[in-house]
Amino acid sequence: EKHFLAEHQLKNIKITITAGPTREAIDPVRYISNHSSGKMGFALAAAAAAMGADVTLITGPVTLATPAGVTRIDVTTAEQMHAAALKRAELSQVFIGCAAVADYRVADIATQKMKKTTDDSINLTLIKNPDIIADVAGLSRNRPFTVGFAAETQNVVHYAKDKLIRKKLDLICANDVSNSELGFNSDNNAITLISAVDEKTLPLQSKTELAKAILLHIYLQFSAK
Ligand code: CTP
Ligand code: CA
Predict the structure, then answer these.
(1) % the chain with pLDDT above 90
(2) Active-site residue 188, yes or no?
(3) How far is the CA of 78 from the centre of ligand 1 (A)?
(4) H or E stretch including 46?
């Protein structure tokens, strides 16, 4: 068993990765989003391309440069990411859902800027967005090896395992975001890789190093199938 991926080891493998946040409009000047920086997804895309993979990176709004050799698709909303991801997923052998997809979108997006009223409170009705990775993992034909991420602040492994099973994933990368050193905007991260059969903790390291370790793990599981 090799413990690293050689330069061309992922040659001829198509990998689709989602990254960054999505952004859900409230009106023409306001939106709902989250603090995802896109760094982990971009690091995975860069590492996979460096190993020779054919990489498509579907990303929400981030300020990162496109890694060398990567095909980038920019989207804004969860619905746009869902459409782009499903189209690419069927053509891919591996799908990695790294995006922090907004769970809900605004039911009625105002066409004009909303004006402040004399009321002390207002209500926004939110509708659930489609679950992109669950739909990819549920593909009945050309289903890729599907890898999710779970950012949790408590019961990290328990919640991640629940997502692995519920979304029918092959692998989930559990991320403890209760510690601000890890995840989101940080350049470093530590994760636990969980599959139906085993669990492996990758200690705190740069997202670049972590990306290589995650890809090696994916490659070993994927090529064993
Ligand atoms: N995900 C997705 N589409 C969504 C929501 C999540 O593809 N609409 C993916 C993420 O990219 C990630 C995994 O699902 O790979 C887990 O995301 P997470 O937000 O942790 O899961 P949720 O099912 O939304 O659960 P939670 O209530 O913890 O937010
Ligand atoms: Ca969520």
Answers:
(1) 88
(2) no
(3) 11
(4) helix 39-50
